[in-house]
Amino acid sequence: MAIQREVPFVTLGDASEILGTPQPTLRGWADMLENHGVHFVKRNERKERLFYDTDIEIFKFIKDQKEVHGRKTTGEDLARMIYDMANETGAFELRKPDGEFPLPIPAPQLTYVDMDRLMQQDAFREWFVALNQEMNKETLEKIDSLEKQVVLAKQEQIQKIETLEQQLAHSKNEQAVKIDKIIEHQEKRDRETMAHLKQSLALRQYMALPAWKRMFKSPPEMDAQE
């Protein structure tokens, strides 16, 4: 929740008192976020930093993480975590140097070592669980949609075959031609059905992977449906 004040911003000294953090430490955190291209604190004409509510919230989060995890949480870890939380859940409003709020250029991709270290942190683990649940929901919806398409395709195939068989009964002279059409149509549908089933299997195999592995692997692409 934003901190209500009579003025829209405070100076470094006031921010230090609000957060209970020494000015040099607060200045170092601001430099760290700027060096990683994640968040930039506004400055006045004298180049002094001006801290708004959005800035206070970000630095309070950093302080909380430092108090809980100490040196186990590096500046790079915090920068990546803040960027990801803002990007995925809107937890923070990040500012670019020009004062606008679009998200900055993404930080480097996390390595397995980074993930192992970050997963030891409660805040990151909670965010990761929420993100993983959302990813699972989307993937399961894709599987459900794909399997429904397989069922519909089979139903359409049966209906069309039955219709063609009825037509064959009324025209023996065209029987050979229509049988070829039935076979051709059935083979085409069989190929499409197998493709759908393979996609469904690929998605299920993806869902069976550990959650941390899915962070480094995109879900199988879905073929466009006709």
TrEMBL record:
Q: Which organism is it from?
A: Paenibacillus rhizovicinus
* Keyword Transmembrane applies: no
Q: What are the protein's UniProt keywords?
A: Coiled coil, Plasmid
At the top level of its lineage, which domain of life is listed? Bacteria
Q: Which InterPro entries match?
A: DNA-bd_dom_put_sf (IPR009061), MerR-type_HTH_dom (IPR000551)
Q: Which Pfam families match?
A: MerR_1 (PF13411)
Looking at the keywords, is Magnesium present?
no
Q: Which residues form the HTH merR-type domain?
A: 11-70
Q: GO:BP terms for this protein?
A: regulation of DNA-templated transcription
UniProt feature coiled coil, ranges: 129-174
Where would one find the signal peptide in this protein?
Answer: none
Gene Ontology terms for molecular function? DNA binding
Kindly provide the name given to this protein in its UniProt entry. Answer: MerR family transcriptional regulator
